[in-house]
Write a structure and sequence with these properties.
Layout (H helix, E strand, L loop, with lengths): L4 E5 L3 H12 L3 E5 L3 H20 L7 H6 L1 E4 L10 E4 L5 H12 L7 E4 L6 H5 L8 E6 L8 E6 L5 H13 L3 E5 L8 H17 L5 H12 L5 H8 L1 H15 L8 H9 L11 E3 L5 E4 L2
Helix pairs in contact: 1-2, 9-10
This protein binds nicotinamide-adenine-dinucleotide.
Nicotinamide-adenine-dinucleotide (NAD) binds next to helix 1 and helix 4.
């Protein structure tokens, strides 16, 4: 099956990034959100990001040519043309299931369904639709435009064909598929990364070191491009919190329970860059201006 048309549901941080890379790779993209404001923001962020690529000589085509491939839409009607549907709405099981159920009755029978969930079981999402064999996880990392790894996750019901189509689609985006053969909580890379995030937060909580020093240390010692807390602010503290809670609820293993400092920050609404305060404090241009409260 040849994929030409991509329907992305959710035009937030991830959905807009996925729409952009798909359009850059020549796909026709419908980018859907329930909020016109979200669509407007997504289109202007995409234009800005493409402009940056163009300035660096890294865009093969004119910005407008790429932009023209993306149609912002406020409903699911155009999913009737989709060869692949990629869902990137809020990290809520019932919402995601509802979205997939509705689109299942609109999309053509051959269309692959993929979720970009951080931590919800792909199998549980697949259970909400009829095409359970065509359901995969496609876990992009933020910022989607820059991060080369994408986890391709096989649900219990996923056919070999759909799993391999997912792999080939990721390659066609110029990204590297990381094949995850079993749908386990946290998939693969979060299972490796979240323990160090939890440990770093607990070390700050215990007064062992500052957020800045931990970030400096992991960048200089481990060659990471971004610190643990810098990444946390970009991803959103609520997203990290939800991922940990999903892992905790699924495994009942207390080691995944979100640390107290993270729970407090989420409760008070310090969610990272998007709220101007998280692990760091940000100015109106989104630049860090020092440690958070
Ligand atoms: N933020 C990250 O770094 C990251 C990384 C990997 C995966 N994820 C996952 O990707 C998904 C999206 O995360 P995000 O950070 O882009 O969220 P976000 O809050 O930036 O965007 C979510 C968007 O979904 C829209 N939406 C809500 N209900 C909808 C519906 N019924 N139909 C269409 N659109 C709807 C919202 O209006 C919003 O614009 C989540 O499942 C998250 O766990 C996030």
């Amino acid at each position: 099956m040849e994929i030409k048309n991509v329907f992305v549901v959710g035009a937030g941080l991830m959905g807009s990034g996925i729409s952009q890379v798909a359009a850059q790779s020549g796909y026709n993209v419908w980018m859907c959100d329930i909020s016109q404001d979200a669509l407007d923001k997504a289109m202007s962020n995409i234009r800005w990001s493409l402009g940056k690529f163009a300035d660096k000589g890294k865009l093969k085509e004119a910005v407008d040519v790429v932009i023209k491939r993306i149609q912002p839409v406020l409903n699911y009607d155009e999913a009737s043309k989709a060869d692949i549907v990629i869902e990137a709405v809020f990290e809520k099981l019932d919402l995601k299931q509802k979205v997939f159920r509705e689109i299942d009755s609109i999309a053509p029978p051959h269309a692959i369904f993929a979720s970009n969930t951080s931590a919800i079981s792909i199998t549980e999402l697949a259970a909400s639709v009829k095409r359970q064999d065509l359901f995969i996880g496609l876990h992009f990392f933020s910022p989607v435009q820059m991060m080369a790894a994408v986890e391709v996750i096989r649900a219990v019901t996923t056919s070999e064909e759909a799993f391999l189509l997912g792999r080939d689609f990721v390659k066609s985006l110029g990204k590297e598929p990381i094949m995850v053969n079993r749908d386990i909580p946290g998939f693969l890379l979060n299972r490796i990364n979240l323990p160090s995030t939890i440990e770093a937060i607990k070390l700050v909580e215990a007064g062992v070191a500052s957020v800045e020093d931990i970030d400096k240390g992991v960048k200089l010692a481990f060659g990471r491009k971004m610190g643990i807390f810098e990444t946390g602010d970009m991803v959103g503290l609520d997203v990290t919190y939800s991922a940990l809670m999903a892992l905790y609820e699924e495994t009942k293993d207390p080691r995944w329970y979100p640390p107290e400092l993270l729970r407090r920050k989420v409760r008070v609404g310090h969610l990272g860059k998007k709220t101007g305060m998280g692990w760091y404090k940000y100015n109106e241009d989104g630049k860090p201006v020092g440690p958070a409260l």
